[in-house]
Amino acid sequence: MDQKHKIILAVSFIVVVGIVGLWNVDLSGGYPLISELLEDPDRYVGQNVNTMGTVKNGTLNVSTSGISFWLEDPEDEAYEMEVLYTGALPANLAEGAGLSISGKMVSETKIEANKIVMGCPSKYTE
């Protein structure tokens, strides 16, 4: 095998490995916001979704049956969605806290979350 064939084979191998490595990588650029979920709910109902927002003040309810709250869109508080979560109580979960959730959108206004990730608290105070 001459040098030219070796180079072509090596480049082909690198391209194939790159394609296989990126096969299931989501390159969409982030989570859909709550406003996006609510503007086209038929696209998301019954699907697993990831989104983020802020726990609406006055809605956090922690009980033995689970945790529920309303999640506000981080860019427009007019958009909100109910979240039900039955896992362990996340540290720092409080009204007004920013967080990301993963779960199934079970109706046009409700997500049953299976994962909650709290946002990093600010190091700065006013």
In DSSP terms (H or I, runs of 4 or more residues), the helix count works out at 3
**Largest sheet strand order:** 1-3-4-6-5
Structural class: alpha+beta
Largest sheet: 5 strands, mixed, barrel
Q: What's the rounded overall pLDDT mean?
A: 86
Strand content: 25-35%
Helix content bin: 10-25%
* C-alpha termini separation: 70 Å
* Radius of gyration, taken over Cα atoms and rounded to an integer in Å: 21 Å
Count of strand segments = 6
| Unreliable segments of 5+ consecutive residues | none
What is the CATH level 1 assignment? Answer: Mainly Beta
Characterization of this structure:
By secondary structure, the chain is α+β, with helices and mostly antiparallel strands. The chain has one domain (30-118): OB fold (Dihydrolipoamide Acetyltransferase, E2P) (Beta Barrel). The chain has 3 helices and 6 strands. The protein has helices at 3-21, 34-39, 41-44, and strands at 48-55, 61-63, 66-72, 80-85, 98-107, 110-118. Strands 1-3-4-6-5 form a 5-stranded mixed β-barrel. The termini are far apart. The mean pLDDT is 86.
